[in-house]
Amino acid sequence: MKAILGKKLGMTQIFDEAGNVVPVTVIEAGPEVVTQVKTVETDGYNAVQVGFCDQKPQRVNKPLTGHFNKAGVVTKKYLAEFRTEEGETYEVGQVITVAEFEEGKKLDITGVSKGKGTQGNIKRHGHHRGPMSHGSKHKRLAGALAAGTYPSRVFKGNKGPGRTGRETVTVQNVVLVKVIEDRNLMLVKGAVPGNKGGLVRVQYAVKGQDK
Questions:
Q1: Which tens digit of pLDDT belongs to each residue from 22-47?
Q2: Residue (of 119, 113, 87, 99) closest to 32 by Cα position
Q3: Model pTM?
Q4: 139 three-class SS
Q5: Nearest alpha carbon to residue 84 among 37, 32, 31, 29
Q6: Cα–Cα distance, 128 to 88 (Å, whole number)
């Protein structure tokens, strides 16, 4: 599986062995605990459900409280599910840490991008502005959206102003630069979606992995 939940802490920079500056994102990954193991016989597919970040029992509803009690684990704030590969075996209550990840490997990281609220068509879609000459009343407004007489309506799907950001985004083939086991930290090269404190899913890259 080689997957773990984490929390984005922010960005910094480190130096590699050659003395070059490497911009990195710091992720506090795990430890996470296995709360449920799904199999083809019982659920129709193989997967592992994991919990991350301890949560006060009074903040968890009764169905989830029963779920955690059945697994014999402390209540968690986040739950996620990862598909397992053939031959992989996990047990309920097993703890997964950053120690299972190798430095230099490539990762796929999924997070929720920063929300930017309602934006105009220029910032949202990169449209060109209107003429900036004196007397122009069409500087940053949307242009014509439909023909006049026919079809006399705006087709669905036209790009215009609206809410921007706060979407699930995955960055692929991000290099894992360094693992700090005693602090549960992963340093990955480059930027990662989301704001500080946001939840991210980290797993080995599906494509482009160095053998």
A1: 999 999 998 999 999 999 888 899 99
A2: 99
A3: 0.84
A4: coil
A5: 37
A6: 52
